[in-house]
User: Fold this.
Amino acid sequence: MITFSMFAARMTMASLAPFALAALLSACSTVIRPDSATLYDLGPLRTSTSTSASTGAATGPALPALPPISVAEIGVPNWLDRPTIFYRLEYVNGQQPRPYTQARWTMPPAQLLEQHLKVRIAQAGGAVLSPSDGANYVPVLRIEVDTFIQSFTSPEQSTGKVGMRASVFKGRSLLAQRSFNREAPAPSADADGGVRALAAASDAMIVDTMMWLGTLDLK
Assistant:
């Protein structure tokens, strides 16, 4: 014989069942949710000296100490103006940039490059100003990046490719302009390898840019 209390208890359990199922599904979704994306930047810059104090090994050319120069905000195409890490499968479709879904930059590539360029100039003993701080006589460096991507020539081999156009203005007059392109092999066929390759190519291109600036009359 089912008493009223037993009937009420069964009804209570039945009414709670949907909530229990929802809680279980919520817990399961929390467990199987993919990990958040791994964050990358371009890493620390090596010193600008020509030799390493600890090993004596060459680390690159000695960079010129530039006179005061303003560095404008670096421009990029719309598809690069985001922290997404892109790659191309040249052997499948070289016209299609593809995003890594579980890896991204800490900030858009243009900001990472601008940060490294300013640090490199300061390391070499130069002076960096923003366009708003610079006087009329201080030259302005404007950079347009058109390539910043990991390019796969096969499933196992890829390179980091960085390309840009640098222009130096004195007032409204164009003093000089030059295009720069650098590539570096990726140590692994994944986002981590692509980031390392892009960091190496970016660093080399910044060195190229500073060596070029050192040949110009910036005073």
